[in-house]
């Protein structure tokens, strides 16, 4: 499991539950201060299967192909988000899942009212760019992107599964013959 922009390790308890004591979590962040807090979370819980790395996510090379990649409130803060996405997608093992969870400007009047403040806040803090649509960026490299929204459509989770090795986009686990027959 690869946690991009792991910050203070807020997701570690949930990720640790998912991978179990024998799985491994690789947390990366560009902030040394955030990583110190994440290391404290790991140490306080006695978790030995978490490795933290301070680096730019566009340059990170995982020690092994991850089964899953998570961006949790981090994708929209990366000025070179496309390069980061390509880097981790290329490392994700076939059949692995990539998930992006973040906030967005809601549609309609509420969104139009919030957008100027969001842009101002982005310029003065580490708040993510509200004009980035990760589900569209993910769709540039993955065929089937799932998307769900919550809290008045102001938060979303989008995800995709990397096709199995050798499978062409759109091929199911049964092979292209089944896909063509099903169409």
Can you characterise this structure?
The structure is a single chain. The protein has about 180 residues and is an alpha/beta fold. It has one domain: Vaccinia Virus protein VP39 (Rossmann fold, 3-Layer(aba) Sandwich). About 35% of the residues lie in helices and about 20% in strands. It contains six helices and seven strands, in the order E-H-E-H-E-E-H-E-H-H-E-E-H. A seven-stranded mixed sheet has the order 3-2-1-4-5-7-6. A hairpin with a 4-residue loop joins strand 6 (about 145-150) and strand 7. The longest helix has 17 residues, at about 110-125. It is globular. The protein starts with a strand and ends with a helix.
Helix-strand blueprint:
Layout (H helix, E strand, L loop, with lengths): L1 E3 L7 H8 L5 E5 L2 H14 L4 E5 L13 E5 L8 H11 L5 E7 L4 H17 L9 H6 L5 E6 L4 E7 L14 H7 L1
Parallel strand pairs: 1-2, 1-4, 2-3, 4-5
Antiparallel strand pairs: 5-7, 6-7
Provide a compact summary of the structure:
The protein is an alpha/beta fold and 183 residues long.
């Amino acid at each position: 499991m690869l946690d991009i922009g792991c910050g203070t390790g807020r997701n570690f308890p949930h990720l640790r539950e998912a991978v179990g004591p024998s799985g491994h979590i690789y947390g990366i962040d560009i902030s040394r201060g955030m990583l110190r807090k994440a290391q404290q979370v790991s140490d306080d819980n006695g978790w030995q299967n978490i490795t933290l790395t301070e680096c730019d996510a566009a340059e990170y090379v995982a020690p092994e192909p991850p089964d899953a990649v998570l961006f949790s409130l981090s994708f929209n803060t990366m000025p070179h988000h496309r390069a980061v996405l390509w880097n981790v997608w290329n490392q994700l093992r076939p059949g692995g899942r990539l998930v992006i969870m973040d906030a967005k400007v809601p549609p309609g009047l509420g969104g139009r009212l919030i957008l100027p403040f969001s842009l101002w806040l982005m310029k003065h803090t580490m708040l993510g760019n509200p004009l980035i649509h990760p589900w569209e960026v993910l769709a540039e490299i993955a065929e089937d992107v799932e998307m769900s929204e919550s809290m008045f459509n102001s938060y979303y989770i989008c995800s995709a599964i990397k096709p199995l090795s050798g499978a062409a986009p759109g091929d199911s686990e049964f092979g292209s013959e089944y896909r063509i027959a099903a169409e």
